[in-house]
Amino acid sequence: MKSLYILVLIALVSSCFVSATEEVVDIEQDFDAFNTTENIHYYLEKFGKLPLSTCQKAAARASHYSTCGCPYVYGGTSCGCGSGGLDCSGLVYRSYNDAGWSGIGRTTFNQIGQGGACNSKCSPSNPGACTVGDLFFYCFAQPCPSHVVMYIGGGKAAECPYTGLNCRIITPYATSYQTCRSMCG
C-alpha cells in the first residue's frame, strides 16, 4: 500500500511539471506569433509599440544599407547597394519595411510624429540608454526636422547624409539635435 501511495504521489508531482512546461511552451509560441509580419500591426495596436525584434531587424537593415555603398538620392526609397539610393527618411522607411512594418511614414515630418518618446536618458550624447531602431531627429536647416538617423546599437547610428555621399555608420551628432522617437521602447 505504501508503494502505491508513493507511485500516485510521483505521478501527481510529475504531471505538475509537465503542465508547467507545456504552459511555458505555449507562452513562447504566442510570443513568436506576435513577431510574424502578419501580426506586427496587431502587436502595435495591443501594446502601443512594435516588437523589439522588428526594431532589431530594421536596425540591421539600416546598418546593411549604410555599409554596402548605397548612395544618397533625395526622395529615394530603394537601394540595391550600388544602384538606386536612399535619403535619410528613406533609409528609415526602407529599413522598417524590410523588417516587416509598412506603417512607418515616408518623410521626417511623418516619422517624427510616430512611435513614442524615447527613454528620458536616451540622446545622441548618451546612446547607451537608447533602444536599437530609435530615431534621432535634427534641425540643420528649416523646416525642421531636416534630418533623421537610426540608432543601430554600440553607440552608432545609420544615416544617408546628402548628395555626393553614400549612406554610412556614424557616431550620432550632438549638435542641432531636436528629439528622439522610439518605435519599440
Automatic annotation (TrEMBL):
Coiled-coil annotated residue ranges, if any: none
Domain NlpC/P60: from-to ranges: 52-185
Entry's Gene Ontology molecular function annotations: cysteine-type peptidase activity
Position of the signal peptide: 1-20
Keywords of this entry: Hydrolase, Protease, Signal, Thiol protease
PROSITE patterns to which the protein is assigned, alphabetical: NLPC_P60 (PS51935), PROKAR_LIPOPROTEIN (PS51257)
GO BP field: proteolysis
Matches recorded under InterPro entries: NLP_P60_dom, Papain-like_cys_pep_sf, PG_Endopeptidase_C40
Similarity annotation: Belongs to the peptidase C40 family.
Protein known as: NLP/P60 domain-containing protein
Origin species: Heterostelium pallidum (strain ATCC 26659 / Pp 5 / PN500) (Cellular slime mold)
